[in-house]
Amino acid sequence: MTTHTTPAPLPGGLGEMDPLRWGSPDAATDLPQGARDLVEMAFGLSTTPAPEPAPVPASALAEEPLAALRAAVGEEHVLLDDEVRRLRTRGKSTPDLLRARAGDLADAPDAVVRPGSHDDVAAVLAVAVEHHLAVVPFGGGTCVTGGLAARRDGYAGLVSLDLVRMKQLLAVDEESMTATLEPGLRGPEAEALLNERGLMLGHFPQSFQFASIGGFAATRSSGQSSAGYGRFDAMVVGLRVATPRGEWVLGSSPANAAGPDLRQLVLGSEGAFGVITAVTVRVRRLPEVKVYEGWRWASFSEGRDAMRHLAQHGLLPTVLRLSDESETAINLARPDAIGESGTDGACLMIVGHEGTTAQVESRRAAVTEALTALGGRPQGEGPGESWAHGRFDAPYLRDSLLDVGVLVETLETATFWSNAEALYAGVKRALESHLDGALVLCHVSHVYETGCSLYFTVATAQGEQPLETWLAAKSAANDAIVAAGATITHHHAVGTDHKPWLSAEIGDLGASVLRAVKADLDPTGVLNPGVLVP
Amino acid sequence: MTTHTTPAPLPGGLGEMDPLRWGSPDAATDLPQGARDLVEMAFGLSTTPAPEPAPVPASALAEEPLAALRAAVGEEHVLLDDEVRRLRTRGKSTPDLLRARAGDLADAPDAVVRPGSHDDVAAVLAVAVEHHLAVVPFGGGTCVTGGLAARRDGYAGLVSLDLVRMKQLLAVDEESMTATLEPGLRGPEAEALLNERGLMLGHFPQSFQFASIGGFAATRSSGQSSAGYGRFDAMVVGLRVATPRGEWVLGSSPANAAGPDLRQLVLGSEGAFGVITAVTVRVRRLPEVKVYEGWRWASFSEGRDAMRHLAQHGLLPTVLRLSDESETAINLARPDAIGESGTDGACLMIVGHEGTTAQVESRRAAVTEALTALGGRPQGEGPGESWAHGRFDAPYLRDSLLDVGVLVETLETATFWSNAEALYAGVKRALESHLDGALVLCHVSHVYETGCSLYFTVATAQGEQPLETWLAAKSAANDAIVAAGATITHHHAVGTDHKPWLSAEIGDLGASVLRAVKADLDPTGVLNPGVLVP
């Protein structure tokens, strides 16, 4: 951590994330004994060399653009320090961590620029256009798909547009139940500001502690409570965007027929079309009651059928998650208890209800009746509380596992119910055939009337070339996803990592449309070049 | 009606719509006595000259493009008969009817072309590009915003692409609860095909009897049961589109983060980006029970507050509609009883519940408890049944009123709750100040957590220049909508009529993006030229 250039700490003192790991080095914890035993049994324990902070490349920014950036946002908000630039290097995929651990920080920005307002962002974009600088919007830095690794070839420099100063709650409309938030607010900060008024977003992705409002919108984020509170893209009713061609404001109404819904073109645009400078979201009242409980199912497919029943009968709880047999066996839904025995070959489902006391009572009763009728066995609140307690812990665990020679990574997809089993089998087969002796675990984390997501966690021995090994396996998994006709990403976004598979999903015409929109809004291509747009 | 060129009649024998009216001439009914009395009192009765079918302009299509069209879809599917071309002239706005009644059928197509498949549509588009023909997709012909009146200047001819032969239910996936429908299926036809399997869409706009699946998608239609079953754009999970640059298929999953949701760019594109040749929608099981009931509120604003409460507390029924004091006073929600007295200055709300017996019981109990606590007075099922019985009748009533010298038209908008009162007052003022002695009635027809729609019905004496009078009033209403920051259209779409106001809503950059997408997908501009894109 550095000096005056570091922003105020997050609520709870989580601090800044280091390129070498999830969270700050202070947050590193020892591997729980259960997980340690499991790793020893599965892969054998080894210790990887303790990663050393590697030097970042020198800033290549010439004097003229540097002076222009300083004029745009103020000298104190243009940072060239190596440490600050190191903290804005890439995101948090396992390949990102492996590269950083191997001393490769080649994607470090030449400067970190911290605008304080929409107008500041617009001024930075004007400088970027004039001097042909690549601009990478930076919110929480939690991207796991290479979305912060923009192309720099052909540009006069690469600027990290760090939105850390844009953390205001700009407006609250309690009658319409909307709030307007600045993009730099991280999950806990936004919740804290809303909670003061008895309101909340209810958006809790695993990256919640660090991820930002702008990032949620730019990547169509989906959270662990999305069954109840909706995906982030479904919460957004208004957007303010700074583009190289000027300001763009959208959001006349909750819904309308005034042509295509252009909000849905900005959502998911990953900084390639513009920089989101304000997001108006639908908010909810804080729940009076939260109850999380466990249910067991004889098989993954029986559990999925039960989820489908709930979704198709208007019975969705607030949280709904189902681990497959393997994930259940090692307790991955409960990071504090990983490796602890107690499985019976069955699958663990987490069901959470939030709302007023009356709402929770009636919904819980209806869900309990349905799940019981479908053959589920209630496990009480123990597994539910354990899941809730550890819901943001998995990425920290990855760091501990990396330290003992295990490579852990996740990937996710979604499809329609009738295709879920084939997709599950196809991705599992692709991963297992590329990673000898790997553990391939899966859960359903998001559920719709017509389908669901599948979220895979893979653990394997790092071996000699962990990066190359993983990239080959991931590529095979992506091919399997495309072959199954599913989506290349349900909620991790496209970035640079998924881009080669995007055209298979949206078609050559879809790719062409993205290029046309990009060319229209960002004619000189300064916004996150190389990200998203095929 | 003509001979072999006429498609099979609709279920219920509704037949084809005539440019002079809603529905077929056979469907014309006498004005109910109550409405007749009301009109006499308000405007004085007069009788307009019985409209005579006017001649359509001769087809201006040259031999070469005509031969190419015949080669594309078969000679029998390229129709030049005057009567067929007359039936494909414009849509069903009151200005459309007034123009036709005045003998103006200048927008008649040069040919009506009836493709039988996606490949046929693609072949027609290829001919259109080669010969520079303007192509107007035609589904149900119910558009009320000039979306069927494409520009023809500079084109070698104007072709109505009549989707009447594309009426198949292509696929049903009962596990995923999706169905794939061809675009030419009209509302009742699609429901009948799904009903056979115990399924339904649940999409019932007022235009339901004639409007088509393709049109629902192309215009982001919203129905009278959208509170329960969702807007049409929320039902769509997949699309197949024929564009001048080739086929475009979208829909890998219920939702995803694979960049912007491009389905939402096709939905609402009004035939300007491509022709939708198949729509995959989420379907529901047919309800066991339907209950519609009336509630009375002391004022429009109290009733709106109650609607807001339901929406923001997870209590939305299947149908929710609230008439303002004026609309309640003349019983517009019950076309069979218009003009009948019985008002107490209060406002009528229609609340409908559909679902399983258990669902309806529990939801009805919860809604009843909430509405009672908020001061609503239950009116029993009488008003609800009356509304349900007449739910598709208003457009027929318009014809009868036009025949006695009354001009009737509707317009609609939507906004956030905190802006609803100002929007209501602004639009009402604009209409009343332009139309001396007009009745301006309003209801809330669609409700969201963050806001609602406002649907206005205007009745005034036709006077000497009904068309010009109405266009001036409508223009003032649109200005008032824009001034209030609301949407220019909640569910009627943009067409040509709303286009001058679109840029104020989506910004110059939004307009620029629409042009960029249009130029990319339809580089020679043959698709519905002049519609939607500013």
UniProtKB/TrEMBL annotation, chains A, B:
Record key words, sorted: FAD, Flavoprotein, Transferase
Annotated site residue numbers, Important for enzyme activity: 321
Binding-site positions, substrate: 398
Keyword match Manganese: no
GO biological process: lipid biosynthetic process
A UniProt-annotated Pfam family: FAD-oxidase_C
Cofactors demanded by this protein: FAD
Residues given in the record as FAD binding sites: 219-222, 270-276
EC number, as in UniProt: 2.5.1.26
Region ranges (Disordered): 1-31
Keyword Oxidoreductase included in the entry's annotation: no
Residue span, FAD-binding PCMH-type domain: 105-286
Active site: 455 (proton donor/acceptor)
Domain of life according to the entry: Bacteria
InterPro entries per record: Alkyl-DHAP_Synthase, FAD-bd_oxidored_4_C, FAD-bd_PCMH, FAD-bd_PCMH-like_sf, FAD-bd_PCMH_sub2, FAD-linked_Oxase-like_C, Oxid_FAD_bind_N
Annotated GO MF terms: alkylglycerone-phosphate synthase activity; FAD binding
Family: Belongs to the FAD-binding oxidoreductase/transferase type 4 family.
Protein name: Alkyldihydroxyacetonephosphate synthase
Organism the protein comes from: Nocardioides marinus
Classification of source organism: Bacteria, Bacillati, Actinomycetota, Actinomycetes, Propionibacteriales
